[in-house]
Each structure stands twice: as C-alpha cells, then as structure tokens.
Amino acid sequence: MAPAVVALILSWCLVARSRAQHLPRPFLSLRPSHGVALGDNVTLRCHLPRPAAWVLFYQDEHSRSYRSKSKKQDTAEFSFGDTMREHAGTYRCQYEVSGQQSEMSDPVELVVTGE
User: Fold this and answer.
1) In 3-state terms, what secondary structure has residue 70?
2) Which is nearest to 78 in space by CA: 50, 56, 96?
3) Which parts of the sequence belong to the Ig-like domain (predicted)?
C-alpha cells in the first residue's frame, strides 16, 4: 500500500476516534451555594449534557463516589448531612456513556465554616 494511503487511513482513524471519545463537559452545582457551616446538609448536583447511567464525583482529584442508575439520567446527586471539615475541598464530576468518559466539570469549592 502506498505511504500516502496508509497515512490517510491512519489520519481518518485518529479523527474518528477523537470524535467518538469527546463527550461534552457536565456542570456541577453546590447547594447551598454559599455559607456551609459544620453540621449543614450539602448536595452536589452534576448536570449532564447527555443522559448517562454512570456518574463520578471527585473531591480534590480523588474519586469520592460512583453513582449508577439502572436508568439513564440527566442529573446525578451526591449528598452528605452533618458536614465535617474533611468535606471541604474542590469537587468535580464526570459521566460515562458506552465506556467513554466525559471531560471533568469545572471545579466547585466547598468551604466549611464554624468551630
């Protein structure tokens, strides 16, 4: 096979692969959005641009929780009550569709105040 044909085929495969792997970035929100005190209830909500059954939540770049549903969804929540100091940090989420992971959401900072 001519080198030009091989290069063309490889280029096409790389373009097709990059398009197949690109999933839009989700949006992460925090409730309450400001003023989280020790003992408060907190909910992180990951808003998905595409329905997904698998959603991952990260705290300070480490996986904190997987959420899976038998049914695809366009939002997923991770909550904790009785907020403690160790809950403070930077949170992100991402989702998975057909074995492909999305980009991570922009970070959301949880600041815990109080004694």
Assistant:
1) strand
2) 56
3) 24-105
Asked if residue 74 lies in contact with residue 51, where contact means CB atoms within 8 angstroms, the answer is: yes
Beta-bridge partners for 89: 110
Give the helix/strand (H/E) hosting 93.
Answer: strand 89-97
Q: What is the mean pLDDT of residues 1-29?
A: 59
- Residue 23 · residue 103 · CB < 8 Å: yes
DSSP, res 102: P
Tens-digit pLDDT profile for residues 80-110: 889 999 999 999 999 999 889 999 999 999 9
> What is the CATH architecture of 24-113?
Sandwich (2.60)
Taking the C-alpha atoms of residue 115 and residue 110, their distance in angstroms, rounded to an integer, is: 16
pTM: 0.76
